[in-house]
Amino acid sequence: MFEARGLEKVYRMGEVDVVALRGVDLDILEGELVVVLGPSGSGKSTLLNVLGGLDAPTAGRVRWRDHDLSRADDRLLTRYRRDHVGFVFQFYNLVPSLTARENVALAAEIARDPMDPAEALALVDLSGRLDHFPSQLSGGEQQRVAIARAVVKRPDVLLCDEPTGALDVATGRLVLSALAGVNRDLGTTALLITHNAAIAAMADRVLHVHDGGIARVVVNQRRAAPEELAW
């Protein structure tokens, strides 16, 4: 799914260069659920942004399937994000004046072959909340609406940046169950960024990121279910 070689990202902050990624070599396989684990400032979000076509590397190469993202122009990157990538962030970014169904329908309108918004919401166990507004939903329910919005366009890859960071343990498990279900039932490749080491047990592989590089890779022989996590 992804291949990165010698990936670097440097931000210019006034007269200071801040190195966010340094020499990252990475392969992500089709259908994997990968957890990217590391402390704040380690480069996790920058790596996600580069893989998602939201940011361009300073050096190195990153490919999605047979497409070189590091050389793509803005038009191609926009098409890549629209047609192939679903994003889930820590904060839900739902439109408050729209129902859960309508929030998901917004993403469906720009997709080439979307599923029905009600079907996407059923995947995250929200069939009974289709016509509720965000203010009528709990934090975990809002995050599951955000997941449905990301998957309604049938993306090839789901990129999640701290999707449980604003949630309590019980609610976080529900959200992780929804993400694991999308990965399992739809075969969607999923990358989940977190600083919570307990979440690592639910992944096929865990990438430990430190100081802009991948410090080590752990392969799980068995993926734990979210309810089994020692949070």
Strand order, largest beta sheet: 6-7-8-3-9-10
CATH class: Alpha Beta
Assign the CATH superfamily.
P-loop containing nucleotide triphosphate hydrolases
The helix/strand class is: alpha/beta
In total, the number of domains comes to: 1
Distance between the termini: 30 Å
* Count of runs of 4 or more consecutive helical residues: 6
Number of E-state strands: 10
The CATH topology label is Rossmann fold
User: Percentage of helical residues?
Assistant: 25-40%
Evaluate the radius of gyration.
Answer: 17 Å
Shape-level CATH architecture = 3-Layer(aba) Sandwich
Question: What is the H/E string?
Answer: EEEHEEHEHHHEHEEE
Average pLDDT across residues?
94
Low-confidence residue ranges: none
> How large is the share of residues in beta strands?
25-35%
Major β-sheet, in short? Answer: 6 strands, mixed
Shape: globular
Short description, anyone?
With 231 residues, the protein is an alpha/beta fold. The chain is built from 6 helices and 10 strands; from the N terminus they run βββαββαβαααβαβββ.
Description:
The structure is a single chain. This protein is 29% helix and 29% strand. It has 6 helices and 10 strands; from the N terminus they run E-E-E-H-E-E-H-E-H-H-H-E-H-E-E-E. The protein has a single domain, classed as P-loop containing nucleotide triphosphate hydrolases (Rossmann fold), CATH 3.40.50.300. The mean pLDDT is 94. The chain is α/β, with parallel strands linked by helices and 231 residues long. The strands form 2 sheets. Strands 6-7-8-3-9-10 form a 6-stranded mixed β-sheet, sandwiched between helices. The longest helix has 18 residues. Helix 6 links the parallel strand 7 and strand 8.
